[in-house]
Task: structure prediction
Amino acid sequence: MSDLPRKAVTRTAKLAALPIGFAGRATWGIGRRIGGKSAEIVGRELQQRTADQLFKVLGELKGGAMKFGQALSVFESALPEDVAGPYRAALTKLQEAAPPMPTRTVHAVLDERLGEQWRELFLEFDDRPSAAASIGQVHRAVWHDGREVAVKVQYPGAGEALLSDLGQLSRFARLLGPLVPGMDIKPLITELRDRVSEELDYALEAQAQQAHAEKFDEDPDVVVPHVVHQSEQVLVTEWIDGTPLAEVIDNGSEDERDRAGQLLARFLFSGPARTGLLHADPHPGNFRLLPDEKGGWRLGVLDFGTVDRLPGGLPEPIGVSLRRTLDGEAEAVYELLCEEGFVKESIELEPDAVLDYLLPIIEPARVDAFTFTRSWMRNQAARIADPRSPAHQLGKQLNLPPSYLLIHRVTLSTIGVLCQLGATVRLRDELEAWLPGFATEDAAEVEDWPAAEA
Result:
């Protein structure tokens, strides 16, 4: 019997309480102001109460509700600073932990999937979970050959919960929109639903993780744990220690944050080139910063449950259009966007206007080193979200082809994490090394823009 609150009516009621709770707190806030409290104080209290409820509901439900919360958490950099604080604390909790399932449930899954003698596979097994996430939780153990391992156990009923939650959240998408101003919530939920079957399939996850582990074996910059054993609802991999990226964001030194950002960008662009797969869940809970033998750091990468399959690496048109945008070739960029389906045949746009729309977004690729900041992210979000701005009007006319949907979300999510880190990154180096179509024989000299203010 699952310990997730699985019954549709129960889960629906909990999720429905989110937008209703938002409205109720707004009424409460008006009453507080009438009673003499300042708008600023009331506003902060409202935000904190809303954030607390958001974490409580999404964390308790796990499943699709928590997956949605994790996806939102990387976009908190786009929120105005006076709003971001309370949400930041609540949403980032979803990256590392959730209420665990009882030990009896864990043992029941292991009995069923590994056999009643499953303890013979381990020299040690810690019943206390080391991490709990949206569809499963991880236990630290020692495999029978002496290797330290992570044992990922899927929650019973996780598939049902994922589909139910995301279906309900889709109905509330319009009301949930204010969580991240300027972001269209419904396509995010739809894309998460489309990936449910892959997320639940530990055989696919094991294949993707092992492919990365083999290609990155002995890599000086990136560590991917090898797969030790896999069965339905149970995945055993090598254990890696390290500092969670969420802790680096909160307390890391400037050197640590810069190094983490550089390695994250390197992994994002080198992974598809080396494995034909794109890690598609880049929230901080899935990364660790590990010390190397030379006194520096390496990036540990976890959770390959969601990947995009790109046999030829990232599509070459991305690199070509990015290079042409940097070179100011408006007509060539517009023609390529039309060919790839970013501009529908029924739409006609001014190439120079499209170039003006794109240039601020790709500023990190134009300079030798770019400092990603929350203020830069907020400025970009505000420019595109403001209904009065030309960027907003043009953006509404652009189209995102299905084949680029996951790449687009992963890129935005990674940029969100880089902004949370406040990392200074030599992004152009990674693009020239790994992005097909970007590097050219004369690509060395590109006019530098001033780096964004920290």
